[in-house]
Design a protein that fits this description.
single chain; Alpha-Beta Plaits; 37% strand; alpha+beta; 8-stranded antiparallel barrel; 194 residues
Length: 194
Amino acid sequence: MHALQYEITLPADYDMTVVRDRVARVGHRLDAWNGLGIKAYLMRERGVDGSPVNQYAPFYLWNTAEGMNSFLWGGAFQGLVNDFGRPVVRHWTGLAYEEGGASGSPAVVAVRRRQAVAEGVELSEAMEEAAREAGRLAALDGAVCAGAAVDPRHWEVVHFSLWEHGSPKAPGDVFQVLHVSEPERDSLPRGRQW
């Protein structure tokens, strides 16, 4: 599994209906994308759920590098680049994924938490803890799914979860879910991934 996210931060007075309308118009295009486990079309609005910014920030869980690369270099991503400019794309390698008790319910919000892996910490212990956290989040009431991944270049762990209600029980940045494409969600490997 590979996790991927880019963030497009928009002006404070930006009309976020532009983002909503764009997702409504093009979001379905990845509903059958080969190699894609989940794409959550995410948005934050300044002043909503504690967000300091207006932002469009889709989050992906990929089953295959081929599917991810086909998206990035095969033309689909170019449409976003043409509309908003080329964003920095963050990429993490998968540590764990779990379906939640609310699996099958539509996701309303997502939570993303990034945290640095401290210098000197035992890496196997830190990654085990990240995998356990994915399982803990998935077991909480209202969780649709949860995952964890790591960027070993910057030693950053990302926790990502989808929730069926607007009161997630996970710490982190809260995003509105505008659409979810999940063509190969059932194929995402469960549990620890090493």
